[in-house]
Amino acid sequence: MTNFSATLAAALLMAASPGRAAEAQPQAHADENDLAEKITGTWELVSYQVEDKATGALIDAMGSAPRGRVIFTRDGWVAFNLEGTDRKPAETDADRAALMQTLVAYIGRYRIEGDQWITQVQTAWAPEWVGTEQRRSITVNGDEANVTTPWRIMPNWDAGRLSRSIIRFRRAR
Fold it and tell me: How many CB atoms lie within 10 A of CB 139?
């Protein structure tokens, strides 16, 4: 066997070895697949708080009994719809505008990076979000998930100040 043939045969054997392929796969990729599997399904909103960066104050931005769902599909879509407590049908334009203060809703394709899901927003309650990426840190413990947003200015609360959302979900039954 020539030196080239021996090298080629060794390379082919290494490439075909299932043990080698598994070792070569980065751990982060396996962790991302695990997180994607854990979040797939429908989650019910439990609480939604906003932390003001300057003061550290926490507010129940969606009231004491918010409702909503986030749905993650196996094929990479997320639908996110959260509503504040005691929303009533609008009777005037002012009522409709006020309802926007107690709503967060968007849909898009998502991907996992480490402990975050990143949504490429395709439709949203706030048009300025369309075409953006929304990044969320998430930890899943059984049927509970805790989500934290990065610091940002939200279009519907905290008067244009930097804040982040701290959101709790439980798996819907």
Answer: 12
